[in-house]
Design brief:
The protein has 12 helices and 7 strands. With about 325 residues, it is mainly α. The strands form 3 sheets. The chain has a 3-stranded parallel β-sheet. A two-stranded antiparallel ribbon has the order 1-2. A two-stranded parallel ribbon has the order 3-4.
Length: about 325
Amino acid sequence: MEALSDGSREEPGKTSEILEKSRQELENLRKEYKDKIRQAIRDNTDNLIRFITDYILKFGNIWLSYFTKVTDNRDRRLGNGWIDFEEEIGRVVRTIENSLLNRTKAEDMYISESLTDAIGDVLSNDVELKEYLLPIVKFDFLVFSLWMEEALKVEDGRLDSREKIKMIEEEAPNIEGVISYNYTHTPNLYNLGDKVRFIHGELGRHNLVLGTSETLEDELADEFVECAYFKKKYQLIRYRLGNKFKTVFSNSQDDKWDAIIYGHSLTPADKYSLGWLFTENNNGLFAAHIETIKICYYDDLSYDQQIANLIALIGQENALKYVSEGRIVFQPMS
């Protein structure tokens, strides 16, 4: 029995009905905001940021809550204020997938605690997770992406006041094509705007690719697609970006290129594009077009991480071979 504020009693069944009604009213309100936000995206109106802000204030945001937890955890952040979004998204996705697939898994207490704080204790309830929670997680992911885009627009607006990177400024006159994994218009600083392929989306187009690499084995990846929404290849299809990055190097079969990788960790999450850059066959670039690849690193920590990621991308033997031949060169950022 449940006590009401006026001192009377309510039957348990009635209480359940009240809770279900409250949930339905909440979902109706949530749907109103979903419709407003999706329409604002289609119309590309200035109302979008207001709708996003109102939505977050009314309903919170699962991903903002989760990433805030990550920044508070010293073992999982990359320096002050930096976190690996792709890795953390992958951790959450794998946790949800494992729950839905009823797999036996090693308990990740940090993930469990963070998710419980963000979404409640539903990981053990497949029906609740799949039918009620997952749609919210997906829409919150879209809202987080739009919120991040708005934050980056502010940074993009300060472009003219940013100090130029000496190395890129010196190389700019010789640069014929840019594959940008960033969303901002930084290449405009060096008059490279018309040479850029934004392979992960571009600010102002609401098409930011912010996701993880595939988290399932090959035999499951094309069958179990409950969490495909959070994965890069899905987003590349959704935003019609595809693999257009290849056109940067396709001017002529006789062209020879030197490639520079700057500001990228070589994360395996981008293997679909970076792995192709290193492929040594007629369908790739290393043999057909690329003579050397210069990989810039920030410090010893990033240098070690980039070497490990390079091995994950192309294998130890290929990495050793290309570095020994001078076809891959690591260079500190000056």
